[in-house]
Amino acid sequence: MNPFLVIVTFTVILAIVIYWLQGRQTKVVEKEIMKVTPKKRISVIKKADWVADEEAEPTTEVVSEPAPAPDPEPKSLEKPVSEPTPEPEQEEEPDPELVVADIAELEGVGPKYQLLLKAAGIPSISVIAEFDPEELLKKLVEVNESEEITKRNPTMYVVERWIEAAKSR
Question: What CATH number has the domain spanning 96-168?
């Protein structure tokens, strides 16, 4: 017999035995680990359930009332005359759901672009119609870089189509 062939055969058999023993050893270790630490079930909590739980459990806050401060001066019987202050005019903001529905009517404006337009301060189709395409694109790119709403910015062609569609309405 060739001694070289015997050495190679012995080495191959030894490698197979070591491989087999190593496989058995990892299975034993895995079983021991599983005995020590049982599997934990991971439960998924839906957002609606989370919100419902928060609403169901009202939190009580303990607020201590400050002690009344002593009056340093006696109160006078005359009431001070104050000038009536005019109430500031409140601008009525449109309902956000209607605004999104308004923007969604444009062809090519999906949910991500709706959010991008809303974040850029563009509430309706009429506002889109007033923009210059370059200005609108620049504004959308700036907002998207800061807020990271979409993966891709809209192209000039898409913005031009939005403005044309908005003007035709």
Answer: 1.10.150
